[in-house]
Model the fold of this input.
Amino acid sequence: MACHRYDQPNSRREFLSRAGAGFGAVALSGLAGENLIAADGRAPNPVAAKIPHRLGNAKNVIWLFMEGGPSHLDLFDPKPLLNKLAGESLPDSFERPVTAMGEVNSPLLESKREWAQHGESGLWISDWLPNHAKIADELCVIRSCVSDGINHAGGVCQMNTGSVFGGRPSLGSWISYGLGTENQSLPGFVVIKDSNSMIVNGTRCWGSGFIPAVHQGVLLEGGDQPIANLNNPKGTTDQRQRKKLDFINKLNRKHLLGRESNTDLDARIRSYELAFRMQAEAPEAIDLESEPEHIKKLYGIDDKDTQIYGRQCLMARRLVERGVRFIQLYHGAGSKWDSHSKMEENHTRLCRNVDVPIVGLLSDLKQRGLLDETLVIWGGEFGRTPMSEKGDGRDHNPTGFTMWMAGGGVKGGQTIGSTDELGLYAREDKMHVHDIHSTIMAMLGLDHTEVVYMHKGRPERVDLNEGHVHEGIVSGV
Done:
């Protein structure tokens, strides 16, 4: 069967740029008011906005990544039998899982949560996320997620790249490769952490792997200067900075000759140009102080417990407004959602941190008419086991856990799939990480089987040729 290579012209924009010595792109550039071909005569801008395979509801993605593995059993997947059998061993009818700590025969740990159904849909949400009741009808809760990573390194890596081993492109990079970005003065793929703690696997989580380096994510740090070195050095004018940049690029372009396959060098050249353009637009984009007080309060920025994640969520909304394609917000950087012990203390604090900001984000997107075109995703690298660890904690559980999606054309107020009566294994409508990635691509209008990059003679895809789109999550797929 013939393979459709995505790195051949797949849009009218690309066709005009490559055909007829690129003269078609000159006309298009004039009509669109865009610089589609670099001034130095290089190939068309690889991050220019591209036409998707089909009309997708979503144009942007905000991924709320809870690093460490939140407990689905205490948040979105109530299990009455778990409390009934608390203190007993896992029934013999259950296969003994292999977890991060090896085979576990610890007694079952009860969930101390109070549960209630919310919204017209009657979605089950625990008292750890009381404000989520306001957005229940926006959420599509997927209770049957499955991963292959039993530890944080493999789990975080697979949730971001599709593989438990590092080196492959991240989902954000694939989406940048497939769709480009609508704003050439800001990065198309942005990552924001809630602390200076190291995320498991570090930059590999938002790296571009073997696809061109220009598609990798850009990390924004916390504090007063999220983007390092954004402002000119003291005493340096824009004109002087422009001349300095032109000279550096001249040297880089000369060095690039004969080394065109080195995508890191090409990305470096383009990053200098992006950095110069960002100096004009980025300061306004990240200026949260310009927001009215009632919006800051909506995100919980007036509360010390919710301030940090509230600022991240508000930043995400501002970036979406300005055309940034993929934004990933890490909460609990350094695997803080990991709760091998002191589950109550750990999750009480972390849920308190994110409950108001997440609800504020969805509410704000909706009131601005942005939720229909912004896909919001929540989840970690895996869930937690029903068995106890250290008496008051839970171990890693990649065999059945919960994520949710909202906006971007998602059918809200529904639950997809299920786990067994103790929440250990996904039983109905399993969604592997590959299926999750494929479905996200579909909601953006991309056919994941057609977004292909030829690497060492092999056609590579985001789903490693294993994913399937879940048609029940969104209409029109």
User: Anything to note?
Assistant: The longest strand covers residues 139-146. Residues 140 and 414 are 5 Å apart (CA to CA).
